[in-house]
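Reminder: ligand-aware prediction takes two inputs, not one.
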Amino acid sequence: MAKILLIGNGAREHIIAEKLVYSKAKPTLFAYMKANNPGIAKLAEQSVVGPYSDLDEIERFATSLGVDFVFIGPEEPLGYGVVDVLERAGIACVGPTKELARLETSKSFTRMLTEKYDIEGSPKFKVFSSDDGILEYLKELGSVVIKADGLAGGKGVKVQGDHFETLEEGYTYCKQVLSEHPCVVVEEKLIGEEFSLQSFTDGKSLFHCPVVQDHKRAYVGDKGPNTGGMGSYSCGGLLPFMTEEDLEAAKEITDQMRDALFKETGTLYKGVMYGGFIITKTGVKLIEFNARMGDPEALNVLSIMETDFVELCLGVISGNIHKVESVFASKATVCKYAVPEGYPEAPVADEKIFLGEVPKEVKYYYASVDKKEDGVYMTGSRAVAFVGVANALEEAQVLAEDGVCSAQGKIFHREDIGTAQLVQKRVDHMKSLRSE
Ligand code: AMP
Ligand code: GLY
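Here is what comes back for the chain with adenosine monophosphate:
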């Protein structure tokens, strides 16, 4: 029987834990988490709570268990180089090495690869390590996005019109980034509809999951500050505003990036490449790549994945992913997060969340919570994800909404995710862009 160690403590890892445990390989699961996620703890034979920076402890835990492989859920341990340490100890991993994880941890690295290897779909951009020439470039582009070069939990990106107005304000932000990071990326602001494509890879071939649309803004109607993602939907196949060509373009960009990563580093990327794309009036463009599954996007695709998850992980590790058949139920999925009041800027702290009668057709997954003796406490970020799966999007939406409404506490959620009205808004937006 296989033994697997899962690193991570979010809802993404809760569903990954479920997929691993319910594999036909019937493995024994162990977990390393930075807070006690009760959903993961229940599925694991043994779990340990500790910081993701403690690579020695993670290696010691994995070695003492004699695990067959380690699945790394979040970007934080990848950024510390947990895969390098584990692989040096002879332990296989689903997740890229520190050098390859720069796909996510360094926005300048990824943009540089698009230029060097002539990868399609990149916006106009420049990387600056001093403020020399920044103002001129801001003026040249006219409408810009500014990105700190490093992991910033989604908070390092500032979009003109959303987070600042004038180019002078943008220039001030660039200087602030440069005082804290080695470089700043300035790029053209793209207008369109975003989608996520998550692809497992052994470094040679790709196993694509169905596309998903996330909702980054905190409040109904896409208002308010950016968050880690308030919820998401997928339709099994294409999203309602996409064409087959859009999907093919995203797959092609991912494949070109996979190839570029190998050419650049000489090492095969083993893990997940999750591309954030935007469909503009001139076609599909690349917003960014992440080196792990999306959260909440993992909840959409893993809820309908019929391919055996352990088999897929072994395909990644052994370099045989081309032999793993990609099978997903053709169902719609909607995920809605219950988050603490005040999230993301001033979330209530140390408040309990109560799950009442969650309808039995709805699945729920714990995220940033800590189980203590007297209940489940929210730790300040997204708390519990509710997932509805159905033949039609509207049905899945109603299930997810019923689920999230059954939770109680100082929480809120976005009622509009997956609703016909919001989806139609996306369709109309894309239609008007395409006809420009
Ligand atoms: P990230 O933290 O890199 O996922 O970026 C957060 C959000 O910023 C993305 O989901 C987009 O909505 C937005 N964004 C990033 N780059 C661009 C761009 N070049 N044009 C327009 N929006 C962007
Ligand atoms: N859905 C946003 C993220 O996982 O980064």
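The mean pLDDT is 95. The chain is about 35% helix and 25% strand. We will return to this case in the review session.
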